[in-house]
Write a structure and sequence with these properties.
Elements lengths: L10 H6 L3 H27 L7 E4 L2 E4 L5 H6 L7 H26 L7 H30 L9 H12 L8 H25 L6 H23 L1 H21 L6 H15 L1
Antiparallel strand pairs: 1-2
Helix pairs in contact: 2-4, 2-9, 2-10, 4-5, 5-6, 5-7, 7-8, 8-9, 9-10
């Protein structure tokens, strides 16, 4: 490769590659917090019906309007497929945001690559890949949320889908999932990067947290335009805020091994 065809890599660019832990941590935390909302959304979009409109809080039973029954049901056990759902959300979201950061920094090394392409192509490619890989898990976990379903776990759900529709049934609706998910992730990453450039650099920890929160809210609002504001804003605010807090509080690594451990711990907390 001829000299001059690549841009010099900055320290900030290099540090982006060590944020795996932050992304996983933020993604895991966001997935846990938003699991009941995801459950209610899955039931609503799939047309599942909650036949009962009663809810239990301890030994107290009370009646809720039928319009609120799916949300009340979503917060109550049994939580079928919860572990698989949270794991799937965690790795998917962490992969998209970490891949977007790393991919952008690698593409920016080439002078012939426009900045907009370097920003949008990584989330476009990674989120498409993640959607395809995750589709059987998405199908099986959503199937489990039917209140009338007698399926007990992910294994039974996958087996039922396979017996009913064959191997292709596990990827039924992939194109719609891509059309729904990919644009919102590209938008969130683009807004996050634009805000990161436009906002003034912080001088104190308090300013850093405020800057991170503002950046998260903006990215979440734009993401929420296509995904539902009430569902999207809290989880992305939480994920980005936790990642930045962990990045600030954890000691700086001195070796590659320490850097990987620190990065993994941050991602798990943020996920």
């Amino acid at each position: 490769m001829k000299e001059g065809n690549t841009r010099p890599q900055t320290n900030n660019a290099a540090s982006k590659e060590s944020h795996v832990v932050q992304h996983l941590t933020a993604s895991a935390l966001a997935a846990v917090i938003n699991y009941p909302l995801w459950r209610a959304s899955a039931m609503g979009q799939s047309g599942f019906t909650v036949l009962t409109n009663t809810a239990n809080v301890g030994h107290i039973k009370f009646t809720v309007p039928h319009s609120l029954a799916p949300y009340v049901y979503a917060f109550q056990p049994p939580y079928k497929g919860m572990g698989a759902t949270i794991a799937g959300m965690t790795w998917a979201r962490a992969a998209i945001f970490w891949g977007s950061d790393v991919g952008k920094q690698h593409l920016l090394q080439y002078e012939s690559c426009p900045k907009l392409v370097a920003t949008l192509f990584p989330p476009l490619a990674v989120s498409t890949f993640v959607q395809i890989v995750n589709m059987p898990l998405v199908r099986s976990t959503i199937t489990l949320q039917n209140p009338q379903s007698e399926l007990r776990n992910i294994r039974e759900s996958l087996r039922t889908i396979y017996k009913t529709n064959g191997i292709s049934g596990l990827w039924h609706g992939t194109s719609a999932g891509i059309l729904k998910s990919v644009p919102k992730y590209c938008t969130a990453v683009l807004v996050k990067d634009v805000m990161d450039e436009k906002l003034p650099q912080p001088n104190t920890n308090e300013e850093r947290l405020v800057r991170s929160a503002f950046k998260s809210v903006c990215a979440g609002l734009w993401h929420g335009t296509s995904a539902g504001i009430l569902k999207s804003v809290p989880k992305y605010c939480t994920a980005v805020l936790v990642k930045d807090v962990m990045d600030e509080k954890l000691p700086q690594p001195n070796t590659n091994e320490e850097r990987l451990v620190r990065s993994a711990f941050k991602s798990v907390c943020a996920g």
